[in-house]
Amino acid sequence: MEKKILHVLEGREKKITDTEVVRQSLPTAQFRFANPFIVVHHMPAKFYAAGSPEERLHPHPHRGFAPVTFMLQGQGFHRDNAGNAMTVTAGDVQWMFAGKGILHSEGPSEEFLKEGGNYELLQLWFNVPAAHKFEDPYYQYIKGADMPHIPAHPGVHLKLVGGEYEGLKGPLQNFTPITAIWGSLDAGTAVSLQAKRGYWTLLYVVDGNVLVNGTSVNGYHLVVLDKDDPNADVHIQATEATRILYLNAEPINEPVAAKDNFVMNTNEEIEQAFADYKNGLFGTLEK
Questions:
Q1: Considering the chain, what percentage of its residues have pLDDT values greater than 90?
Q2: Which is more confident, 57 or 127?
Q3: Nearest in space to 64 (alpha carbons), one of 264, 256, 258, 251
Q4: Please, what is the average pLDDT of the chain?
Q5: pLDDT, tens digit, for every residue of 128-167?
């Protein structure tokens, strides 16, 4: 039996800098959070000519969660106030735990800008339990080559980024159980993915078109399924070539206070994060 759909949320354009626009499908006015999933941002494909000048999201702080970059095209470069510097290449995933506080910047890598091409990514914010929010920041880098393939029909190309699925285990580790599967379906193919009862289940459609349990869903849309529905099947049928990200996670049953770049449990903790940033406790980073 197929799992009930609660919402199909459109990724609306959101300006994050003077020049950068993302499609935000979570949170929306219609539906706020599927905790631990706080934010879903899709930076649509942008073409850079060879030799383009550096273009970055300037240093900004985070606290209390893990921004996770799913690189779809091109290559990004991250640096932070602790001296970390890391590239993330198409097909790979970077998990950055902000913890008690980090100051970082991000954008296309120097190598990518030299060669040019399309630059596209998803960035999701994975919440963490209150007990871990003030721990030290750290990174995980997951190469596409290390992600096990999900057995499926020909034309279905899916990999397990993290969590456990059908006896497989993905390399990405989280503080709470999160299964993340991404990849593509050729036109005319279909796959059924399983969801645990009581877990939040999301399906983001990057582009193309699929029928999700019979409901037509286009690119830039996020499907939120009923976590309390005992049915487990999420049937995905591609009417055209489509890229997807599937998520199934144990809920974090704690209050959420989220504002700007901070995800905490109370408004007082948010105010403290702003004060700490203003007072220089997040350190410095040139660019």
A1: 92
A2: 127
A3: 264
A4: 96
A5: 999 999 999 999 999 999 999 999 999 999 999 999 999 9
- CA-based R_g, the chain, Å: 18
Pairing mode of beta strands 215-218, 242-249: unpaired
Instruction: Tell whether the model's pLDDT for residue 287 goes beyond 80.
Output: no
What pTM value is reported for the model?
0.97
Please state, in angstroms and rounded to a whole number, the distance separating the CA atoms of residues 70 and 55. Answer: 19
What CATH number matches the domain at 5-13+23-249, 2.60.40.1260, 2.60.120.10, 3.40.30.10, 3.30.230.10?
2.60.120.10
Q: What angle do CA 276, 15, 106 make, to 5 degrees?
A: 60
Give the whole-angstrom CA distance, residue 136 versus residue 126.
16
* Amino acid residing at 159: K
Q: Which tens digits make up the pLDDT trace of 168-205? A: 999 999 999 999 999 999 999 999 999 999 999 999 99
pLDDT of residue 249: 98
Token pair belonging to 203: 């399906």
Q: Which residues contact 35 (CB under 8 A, 6 or more apart)?
A: 127, 200, 251, 252, 253, 254, 256
Which residues does 77 contact at the CB level (< 8 Å), separation at least 6? 85, 86, 87, 88, 106, 107, 108, 109, 110
Question: Cβ contacts of residue 229 below 8 Å, gap of 6+?
Answer: 3, 4, 197
User: pLDDT by residue (tens digit) across 70-88?
Assistant: 999 999 999 999 888 999 9
